[in-house]
């Protein structure tokens, strides 16, 4: 039944920022007393919060939209697909909700389906924060958009220019979440390093204020663009020394070849990138270093690919997010001559083998060490440097314990509390 009593099924995809938006969408619906159902068959209306970062992801989003339409459901498409590929999706969807409108979802749907008179909405992004509900691990957005010009990326089309939330409101929300039971904050954005650049503020200031909140908790700082870390590097490393900051650095390299980085418009050189990683490792004990690599970018020659492998062997990331390049509409790289898919696949397989070797090698060095761990579920937790660890003892979920590491595998640790 389309009306005040309609049942709504919500499905979300994508990065931590999108996970936060899905949570915000659900909570904004509750403000208008819509019933949220976990069963799509029972729903009168479906909201799918989409991701569009890769072609495979885009195809999956359209497959899900078509599936929901085949069930004869009203379908609302929210998120990055709605903004980045609006013309392609608007004929399929009954309504679109843009990434910066997540907190207005309840109002928009009520006006469109109940009042049948959609008004112009005044968008105050900081209003989003009030719709984030606490959980043991809670994503906390700090800004939207970015200042990058990467030649392959469609996400800026979807998320737009940088808009940072005020530090005071972020800290107030974080305090509320921690007082309500959150033990781990996922500080998230398209690029956390550029936080505050538009409002004369910066990420280290924000981290320091968050660390001053009373209570036992840990926060993981989300992905940072290396070109934006330079100006804040010393203060950022100092902020990372606080025990409430997870010792994890997520800094995408994307390519270990300067020519490819230039074509990607990443804004840094390989040497500059390595310098940042070395500074962190020198001053932050037990640092977990995570990076991203794209293989098969249009200008990536065999030599450039080998350069990437050589750099990875040198900097030895704990974990590598590897991805085959896929052409994205509206980007500069889409107009370049593309590399054969078989070459991309082969390079991806070589990268995958190396990333497994490096992850295992890094994990082995923790065997015999004692580490602080947050219990996140039965027999499982995350360490102070965000390694996944498993154990056999009983422990209260949400508690912080000490664990001695007894074994290591490729993508995780094992130990005894």
Automatic annotation (TrEMBL):
Enzyme Commission number(s) from the entry: 2.8.4.5
Protein name (database record): tRNA-t(6)A37 methylthiotransferase
Pfam families referenced in this protein's UniProt entry, alphabetically: Radical_SAM, TRAM, UPF0004
Protein role: Catalyzes the methylthiolation of N6-threonylcarbamoyladenosine (t(6)A), leading to the formation of 2-methylthio-N6-threonylcarbamoyladenosine (ms(2)t(6)A) at position 37 in tRNAs that read codons beginning with adenine.
Protein source organism: Methanotorris formicicus Mc-S-70
Assigned keywords, A-Z: 4Fe-4S, Iron, Iron-sulfur, Metal-binding, S-adenosyl-L-methionine, Transferase, tRNA processing
Record bears the keyword 4Fe-4S: yes
Every TRAM domain range: 364-417
InterPro entries attached to this UniProt entry: Elp3/MiaA/NifB-like_rSAM, Methylthiotransferase, Methylthiotransferase_CS, Methylthiotransferase_N, Methylthiotransferase_N_sf, MiaB-like_arc_euk, rSAM, rSAM_horseshoe
